[in-house]
Amino acid sequence: MVGRRQPTPFGGISRDILVTKTARLLTAMSMLLCLLLAACDVSLQPPDSTDSATSTATRSPTDADVSVVNDGHTSFDQEVKNAIADVQAFWRTNYPQLSGGRPYPELTGGIYSVDGTKVTGALARNACLRQDPEAAVNNAFYCTADDSVVYDRNPDHLVAQLAAKYGTFMITAVIAHEWGHAIQQRLGVFGAGSGTSQGRPATIVTETQADCVSGAFIRTAQDGKTAHVSVDQRQLEATLLGYLQVRDPPPVSTEQISHGNGFDRLSAMADGIGNGAGYCFGDRFAQRQFTERPFTSDVDYLQRGNLPYDQIIDPRPASPDGTSLQLELNRFWTTAAASVKGQWRDVGVDETSNPACPNSQVSEFDYCPDGNDVYFTDQFARQAYNSLPDKRIDKATGKIILVDNAPADYSLGMLFVYGWSMAVRAQLFHASTQDKDALLAASCYSGAFTASINSGGSQDFQLSPPDMDEATSAVIKLVPSDKAYGAHQTTALERIQRFTVGYFGGLPAC
Ligand SMILES: [Zn+2]
Predict the structure, then answer these.
(1) Residues 81-99: pLDDT tens digits?
(2) How far, in Å, is the centroid of ligand 1 from the Cα of 73?
(3) 176 CA to middle of ligand 1, Å?
(4) What's the 39 CA to ligand 1 centre distance in angstroms?
(5) For 379-438, how does the pLDDT look when each residue is reduced to its tens digit (9 = 90+)?
(6) Where does residue 13 rank: exposed (0-12), middle (13-18), buried (19+ CB within 10 A)?
(7) Residue 111 CB: number of other CB atoms within 10 A?
(8) Within a domain: 25
(9) Residues 368, 366: Cα–Cα separation, whole Å
(10) How many CA atoms within 13 Å lie on the side-chain side of 387?
């Protein structure tokens, strides 16, 4: 978050420094930026043969037999093959509904398993790997040049690390995304000149569409209609959180926007899960708005979009003519209450080591109707401030390190936003604050408030580019914590869907 009147510790930082430092950061992250990249638009012939070596020794009865070039015969490769078999079956059934009845054209260019940078032998015949042998590192991609799918199976690299931390269904979500690109190619989404950038939709459009398509497949797996992969509620929650790790970092400029931030990607995936593949290729999806954007303030950039912890929990403005999250919340809800002829009583905050509210014996962050305040413990609020899933590369080994505790001022901020949303329930509607309806309504209100401070313009108080990731992370894992509002039988998917409805539709949609 950033406030116009907040202290500016670095004074007059020039635009050049901003760009240079951001560019350096970008270079360090370039391996990650290309995650799930759809590019490699070179017009080359398909490879003339594929390696038919396929493991049969360690397969279980539910494992699929799929031919993979340079098959590593690892459990990771087998997960990929299981996902591919089910994703292809899904498209044989569903493609005709998108193509006016034409059958699904099978993949012609093969599937390639790469162990990191080791691109030799049959792998070198892949059109995209031939052009860029490191294209697969920390990545998986669909190669339009020869209609192939390539993935990096190296256990220290990104996709395998994501699977190790968030569960093997992450692999399925990634494969289903790449197949989204194969479907785009078949349906002509990339335009007539698909070998060039001309006539091609913006990358963020095709990437989030592939996320939506991945969601449509996930729904089928959820419904138990897949032969080889399966996903239960707990695994899906972990997958959604893991998918937040494939977000773009804030871009240097609008031209650098590529896959979408975590909210862009996960809300698209949630739309696919909720509405199916047809929705992903329909008009409503085509009109989608995106929230990924570059930093516009040097101070905000240098703070990585994070106000200090003390400033987030303090409802008083940082300077006499400034503002704060809590002031903005009271301002927003005063106006909203007036629009429904209601009277808003400003909500306060109460930092306490010993919360006393009949709501809950265990919560350390909740709204208490009796005192009309949001109470919290310093310990849990600090945990919330340091709760964002993030990734870095060990430069010595190339290993991807996934963490859960990157600073996230708006993850903590979202707990306040939810508290105010519960106050809306109590004050304006005399409704419950401790059940499923309350949490879903609060998710929607919180989306509407979030949109009101995310214009990217010159408001006194507004979100920073990483804040939508931090909000999404909070909706998935912080809000439902027993130490906060509790899950109340809601799923992460439902909360994301309601948050998205409020974000794009505003309060009338809630
Ligand atoms: Zn992609």
Answers:
(1) 999 999 999 999 999 999 9
(2) 25
(3) 10
(4) 8
(5) 999 999 999 999 999 999 999 999 999 999 999 999 999 999 999 999 999 999 999 999
(6) middle
(7) 23
(8) no
(9) 6
(10) 28
Pair (62, 158) in one structural domain = yes
Residues 363 and 247 in one domain: no
Indicate whether 292 belongs to any domain.
no
- Residue 318 banded pLDDT, cuts 50, 70, 90: confident
Whole-number Å distance, alpha carbon 270 to ligand 1 midpoint, is: 16
Confidence of residue 357 (pLDDT cuts 50, 70, 90): confident
Q: Are 141 and 40 in contact (CB under 8 A)?
A: yes
276 shares its domain with 412: no
Question: Residues 266, 315: one domain?
Answer: no
Question: In this structure, is residue 291 part of a structural domain?
Answer: no
Judge whether 257 and 251 are in contact, CB under 8 Å: yes
Mean pLDDT, range 439-443, rounded to an integer: 98
Contacts of 423 by beta carbon, 8 Å cutoff, 6+ apart: 333, 347, 367, 369, 372, 374
**Rounded distance from Cα 180 to ligand 1 centre (Å):** 8
Distance 69 CA to ligand 1 centre (A): 21
Q: Say if 388 falls within a structural domain.
A: yes
177 C-alpha vs ligand 1 centroid, how far in Å?
6
**Could you tell me the pTM of the whole model?**
0.89
Total structural domains in the chain? 2
CA of 181 to the centre of ligand 1 (A): 7
Domain of 269?
Answer: 34-286
Distance 182 CA to ligand 1 centre (A): 10
**332 CA to middle of ligand 1, Å?**
37
Ligand 1 mean position to 416 CA, how many Å? Answer: 34
Structure-block tokens of residue 465: 């580019």
**Which pLDDT value is given to residue 122?**
86
Same domain, 243 and 318: no
For 31-63, the pLDDT digits (tens) are 233 344 433 222 222 332 333 333 334 567 789
